[in-house]
Amino acid sequence: MIGRKKLSPSRLLVLIFLLALLKFSLSLGTFLHLHLNPPEVRAEEKTDSTPRCPPEIFEALRIEREKLEEKAKQLTLREKRLRLLDQQVERRLAALLELENSVDEKLKKIRTIETKRFQLLVKAYSEMRPSKAARLLMNMDQDMAVRILSAMKSDQVARILAAMPPEKAAPLAEALSGISPQKF
Q: Which residues neighbour 181 within 8 Å (Cβ) at sequence distance 6 or greater?
């Protein structure tokens, strides 16, 4: 197969057309020969075992048949390879889906744990004296402090903000409202 050129689809169609035309002309020639020749000439031809077409054409047809058989073998092998690759893709896809489900389950567990821990933290701040909770929240990241205060009851938030100095309580109150000062 090394060194052979691949036939383009258009060349293959032309070759098939020529072969069909050749077959038709040979069939027509045989038909005319049988009907125009007397029976004694036909009897002589029956004893002759040589091919009815010229040897060059016969050889070209044989070579073309071998090429087509080789292409058919290659296509069969390629189909087998494609089926194997398709099976591999299906197995890998199933494994990926299983992995995705496993990751989703683990993420749900992590979120549940985070939620429980956050609720525990909110409960701890809710049970503290307002002055102690205020001191801790003032030293905390503002976003985290807002999240904790947002999860508390409004009367607890009010007592904690009242225990803070006004310059610390004001930004927290603004962030808790969710409205920017420019909208007023």
A: 174
